[in-house]
Write a structure and sequence with these properties.
The structure is a homodimer of 337-residue chains.
Chain A lengths: L3 H8 L3 H8 L7 H13 L6 H8 L4 E6 L5 H16 L3 E6 L4 H9 L9 E5 L5 H9 L4 E4 L7 E4 L2 H15 L4 E5 L10 H15 L9 E3 L4 H12 L7 E4 L2 H13 L9 E6 L4 H4 L2 E4 L2 H17 L7 E3 L3 E3 L12
Parallel strand pairs in A: 1-2, 1-3, 3-4, 4-5, 5-11, 6-7, 6-8, 8-9, 9-10
Antiparallel strand pairs in A: 10-12
Helix pairs in contact in A: 1-2, 1-3, 2-3, 5-13, 6-7, 8-9, 10-11
The structure holds a DNA duplex (16 and 16 nucleotides).
Chain lengths: 337, 337
Amino acid sequence: MSTIKDVAEAAGVSIATVSRALHGQPRVSEATRRRVLTVAADLRYVASPSAAGLATGLTHAIGVVAPFVNRWFFAAIVHSAEERLRRAGYDLLLYSLGTEAEERRRAFSGALLRKRVDGVLVLGLHPAEDEVAALSAAGGPVAIVGKDVPGWASVRIDDRAAAGCAVRHLLDLGHRRIGFLGGETDDPLGSTLPGDRRAGYHAELSGAGLPADPALEAVGGFTVRGGYAAAERLLQLAHPPTAIFAASDEMAIGAVQAIRRAGLRVPLDVSVVGLDDHEMAEVMDLTTVAQPVGAQGELAAEMILTALAEPGRPLPAVTVPTGLVVRGTTSRPTRRS
Amino acid sequence: MSTIKDVAEAAGVSIATVSRALHGQPRVSEATRRRVLTVAADLRYVASPSAAGLATGLTHAIGVVAPFVNRWFFAAIVHSAEERLRRAGYDLLLYSLGTEAEERRRAFSGALLRKRVDGVLVLGLHPAEDEVAALSAAGGPVAIVGKDVPGWASVRIDDRAAAGCAVRHLLDLGHRRIGFLGGETDDPLGSTLPGDRRAGYHAELSGAGLPADPALEAVGGFTVRGGYAAAERLLQLAHPPTAIFAASDEMAIGAVQAIRRAGLRVPLDVSVVGLDDHEMAEVMDLTTVAQPVGAQGELAAEMILTALAEPGRPLPAVTVPTGLVVRGTTSRPTRRS
DNA sequence: CTGAAAGCGCTTACAG
DNA sequence: CTGAAAGCGCTTACAG
């Protein structure tokens, strides 16, 4: 593996000149630059990131911290962020933490990230105040997807409004007994998302003058399987709902299967509306409230890059719009509720 | 951000002693070691990976190269590999290349990975011979999932056999007109997987004395949407199949939806069998040939770690078993084919 | 058991 | 326009 010294010798210049030529800096004659570039290519020279990082204090890497990568939303965000970062010449270090408190603590303390990345992208984890301070101190700008955090750049949707939009659609269709599939009361990730979507459901119901019935709420854990099981439970009620709002499409997909397996029809017997516009939603013909996922990943990456390029600038906090997509899993209720 | 020098001064020792103490090396008295550890913790000292990397030539990072991360199989592999690597103290650098030839070339030439990682994990990309040589030369052991590559560690399933198993199940049920959903003839990733699964389908048919009918094969591109569209096409044939083997569960899920949308019943009118045991397969009640995904990711990670720890050892090539999981999307044919 | 020193491969003022 | 040299923060023989 060739070093800058090899290139310098082969090109007959000093290593300082090689460095300058390779970085497209001024004060290098066109002739030398070309010679250096040619020699470097011939030697398949690639600068050592370790050495460059030590000299500059910059790693040209961004850390992405998420609870999982194998969940549609996170995977989609990572994919789009990676693409944007790579185009800018940044590497992506992936920290998939799971739900372990210890791992989470290490990541947010900065022990994992310090001196290792130039910036951080946080997904699906909502840090406490001391965690915000610690991670900020670990160095570099931080962008977060899904929540508005003072001091960090952020991109998110309005979860309350999105949930309200889904429920309003069911109300408009004439449903009065509307079930809810959400997360656990005590979210293991400390995320406010489950609570916000639930609040949107409650607000919309009460806006329509309907009482909240705790029996109509079930925990689906934001997974397909969890949504299936939760919907099963709602269907067994003496007075089951005529419609279900699932706080994520994955739960909604599970719910649709459970309803069918129970011998009922969707939407004739039970309507289902999700939230996300998951990649499978269209094929499943699922009515849902769509959020732009790829755009959020790209935007968050962009925010980090901008913060890196212009350190003075205030960090943006953007809320991206959501919109109802009516497909085939919702209709007017056919039985009285 | 504190450096090793800060720790050394605060502990009243040399930086060499700090380094040794922190690495748990011998020839440091228990008393000094404890003092150093305490001071380092107080100062929230974290060694600079750049500096350590420059001194040792080791980055303690593994590169993961895949065409996508937002596809179930790749996301699941990345997730399990990440967990194993993190436990061993390695970082994971993600290179999600998409299908662009240029990106692929750069990654396999080693330009992206050289001096940056200690080893590489390749997913879903099947390199040509010169690419194997180039990436191997870029340094460090390479493990690949999905194909057997001489010179690299590998873990995979027997794609032909798995596909054959799925088709045999349909034959055993009495189906004679069996459709196939696969990839494009000219796979953009250069993967042999689509061809292998198709070959398994053909082999099983001809073993049963059935002729191959090109009209029964459709391209689904290994996506849900693609499977949906491909199944639609097969259903419009003058003489449609009574069963469909989809070479991936994602296509199978799409096919099930397409069949239902066409007003037909699964499995009564058309049986469907997939391959993967996707996380949604159970809820979808999909009959499939299961492959252990998390295990493959962990095993591949393990192989890299072993190769790093014991450079002499020959690199293993493991084929993991698959198995038919009969669920509700397959049954005996009810019409004559 | 401990320290002084060399060296890893870059970048970047500073001279010229 | 170009080069010599310092310095980034570690690790690791080599002495003692």
